[in-house]
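[stage:ingest] chain + small molecule (guanosine-5'-diphosphate)
[stage:ingest] validated
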Amino acid sequence: MSGPSENDADDAALIEEGRLLFERECGFIAGATNEAALPPGTLPEVAFAGRSNVGKSSLINALTRQAKLARTSQTPGRTQQINFFDLGGRLMLVDLPGYGYARASRTKVGEWNALIHAYLKGRPNLMRVCLLVDSRHGLKSNDMALMAELDESAVVYQIVLTKCDKSGTGKRQQIIDRLAESFPRHPAAHTVVHQTSAQNGDGIAGLRAELAALAAPA
Ligand code: GDP
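[stage:predict] done
[stage:export] tokens:
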């Protein structure tokens, strides 16, 4: 068993690994609108999912320190595509379309198409899905539906709270406590919940460290 000081040193080493990984160049590889257009799964992948407007593009841009890598808020109703970004030849960051657009009631606009479900089910190199949840609002029914789908497909997912600069600690603790209660019913859930803000950078270094552990060796 390691003492607290060793743990601290381990944590610092992981943070440094994350910093170094995300300092590497990150470039757009492909935007896939059908299965044939998915790039080969040669690198470990981490996908980012969440409701429209959850702060997904902002988080990806904050992680990679690139202001415009992921485009903010694609217009709902446009062709859905999965965007792939190669991070230093070691990790593929995958931007999934947002779901649950509030004003998309009558049509299927804002709902995920078959491509995305197929991607999530059949991607052996998909190491983790970061499921982004707005820390002011907590989990919604479509987030829970995605959790159930990922449990079913045995794809490991991890909750990342966004916009923590705008939410109170009490509200966040309530979300985290509820999640902790539900995790035993979610076999594919990673139980560490990250609290982030793309605005002030809180939690970004910790999330980089978490994801660096999934990357291909340097
Ligand atoms: P996406 O639709 O999930 O890609 O969300 P965006 O990244 O486009 O963000 C949606 C809105 O939330 C934009 O107005 C962002 O400026 C805002 N936003 C994103 N992240 C944060 C954050 O960490 N803090 C605050 N206060 N606002 C944020």
